[in-house]
């Protein structure tokens, strides 16, 4: 029998899937967001909770997403719908796909603004602007950038166009080609930075901050942030990994590829933390400095290094690439759905989506200047897009996916897709997806709601 394939295309082999999914996972979440939320939430205890969430919740849900995508072979919305109907359920299960596609657009809008900052730093490094810069000047420079809406708009627009161009190229000529080129280089440069940080003096202090377990630092809000980040960093709960799974060859093993992706993503986050915190402590910076952390510490480090502007330039290029490969996966689920639904080509589909993201992004970048007084609750628009997606929509999407895979899909379909060599792995996954993952997500939600109202 001919293997059923997606109308959008397929990865050439399982390694392309691993690289593409790693490209989706490894991004600003690892290098920008993880260090700064760890800093804001007190370090070690937060890191431990985050690691537990990856293992107990993230990995089982990632397996489910790949499985659903590969069996459905369509955009997440339509894959969920068909699998639901096939299992005798309501087509309304596709709602999870809808929430996901929306979350993708929302994440993309603020992600693109931050990626725009990265592009601005690429240009600055190429110019030699940061040579010998001290921590005070580096902080100042970042502040000036945030106040300048026009510059932010230019770089945000550039980034949206970069992403649109690749997604419009389709699975083989767009996504596959893009991920194949830059992924290996990213790892090489990350280790160069780590080596620098290990020799810069305060490595021990940085290490301690990341791994010293002090439970008194932990709040339920921090636990929610750790859970939300485990979804964000693995690109889960919104269909990115599901969409990529729909292009995966049938022969490839889901369990081992997922493990590889999760391990790589976690390593990159920890290495980024180990690179950034020693610089923070060596320069008496504040680990809780927030979103600007990476943009202040890295220029300081590169500014002092011999030939630092070259490394700095390369490094920001690679962060830009990491952001790029992730943003591609933010757009793919919605793009694939538009193509399926309206039977139009990728170019118009991506143009429409890009325009939407671009508009939302203007409100995000305005949060730092012309719209900074406009608050929803106590949050700016930028903060709201981040909070609502990472801490609410992705975990909710994940909860749906866990219930769907664990309780709704027929068991033979699961066994057929997973075909674990040992029964043990199937049982471990099945138990996690039925009990641990949904209960953990629901409990953390409930506790936070309870704390809000008492
Ligand atoms: N995983 C990406 C990161 O860590 O930067 C961000 C992301 C991509 C989140 C795709 C969600 C997603 F669906
Ligand atoms: Na990530």
Automatic annotation (TrEMBL):
Its main localization is membrane
Q: Name one GO molecular function term.
A: symporter activity
Q: Which domain of life is it from?
A: Bacteria
Q: Please provide the record's keywords in A-Z order.
A: Membrane, Symport, Transmembrane, Transmembrane helix, Transport
Bilayer-crossing residues are: 12-32, 44-68, 95-120, 152-171, 183-203, 223-245, 257-281, 310-335, 347-368, 388-407, 428-450
The topology of this chain with respect to the membrane is: Multi-pass membrane protein
In Pfam terms, one family for this protein is SNF
Tell me if NAD is a UniProt keyword of this record: no
One cellular component term from this protein's GO annotations in UniProt: membrane
Q: Which InterPro entries match?
A: Na/ntran_symport, SNS_sf, YocR/YhdH-like
Compartments annotated for it: namely: Membrane
Under PROSITE patterns, the record lists:
NA_NEUROTRAN_SYMP_1, NA_NEUROTRAN_SYMP_3
Which PANTHER family does the entry link to? Answer: TRANSPORTER
Q: Which family does it belong to?
A: Belongs to the sodium:neurotransmitter symporter (SNF) (TC 2.A.22) family.
Stated name of the protein: Transporter
- Species for this entry: Neptunomonas qingdaonensis
